[in-house]
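Records of this kind hold a single protein each, on a pair of labelled lines. Below, a sample record shows both lines together.
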Amino acid sequence: MAADSPSWTVLQVLPRLESGGVERTTVDIAEAVVQAGGKAVVVSEGGPLEVELKRAGAIHERLPVASKNPLVMRANVKRLGGVIKRHDVDIVHARSRAPAWSAYYAAKRCECPFVTTFHGSYSRGAPLKQSYNAIMTKGERVIANSDYIAQHVQKVYGVERERLRVIPRGVDLQRFDPDQVSVARVIHLAEKWQLPDGVPVVMLPGRLTRWKGQELLLDALTHLADLDLLVAFVGAEQAGHAGFREELEQAIRSKGLLGRAMIMGHCDDMPAAYRLADVVVSASTDPEAFGRVISEAQALGRPVVAANHGGAPAQLLDGHTGKLFPPGDARALAEGVRWALGLTAEQRDILALDGLAHVRISYSKAQMCARTLAVYGEVLGRELTCF
């Protein structure tokens, strides 16, 4: 703790503590707040990351903040107001729309500064949906998790540049450190997945949901019939999309790709998974706000082939640490994979060093935490530092 830091408390609000980027960022920032001498409180409906949150020294309170029921959201205003008063909260930080509505009015009633983060572009349609999304523009500071999202927020919602701060998602360079991933961990995972020896692995990490591009990669695989390789889909089924795994399995069979494409499911050791891969693919059919897979893979020295939209172009050094391809273009994706698999050992070593350096300079967890604390400091009118 910083001995000269005054007592201060940050409340972060999000629907659940699952395994996505929003949830992981919440835990990282809570830990940074504690390390900087502050008090970190998180309100959600709970989830697997609750254990890590408590291990970081933060306080978790369960409330039904994932609900979009107007009556529940209204009741949550009072509930969150109680949390703010009970923990003497200095800043309320909302990370998702439904809880943001309740948190905004609770913060207003308690005369507490309100900050938001856009973790995505959010779907738009009817004017009512646009108004629903606009709660994320109400922060004294509005954080965008990529340049792509910052441009979107300015263009669509007219957020003034002076209130907007760009803080990219950060990679934990201690966890995603190639020197810390033992050969034994990689071998264990290869045996668990029953991978054939000596066959290059093309990995697509991401939840099993249509827009992540698994079917596009299968289409690309049909253009790589002359290469001996295995496509590995690594990721859990997304809630509400349970049927997609069956569709993907059927697609593998119908395209004659049995033995060349496998669904591995959830992985508890992603650093080892990246080291196991020869190529990492990010093939999302819709723009991703950030797409942390790209930076995580580069941190572990792996070439990345990514769709050229959303947060990908800023992260990837095209033609150097990976290849960008036109979104939805299976043939171009196949060409990118062929390029990556064709790299010499020397070229792969250079790529690995440059990829890690690029992530260290621009996309580290330490930088993300320091920049977020700086935003809190702006709002509170004091300097906050993270160790």
Remarks:
- Residues 78 and 385 are 32 Å apart (CA to CA).
- The first strand starts at residue 9 and ends at 13.
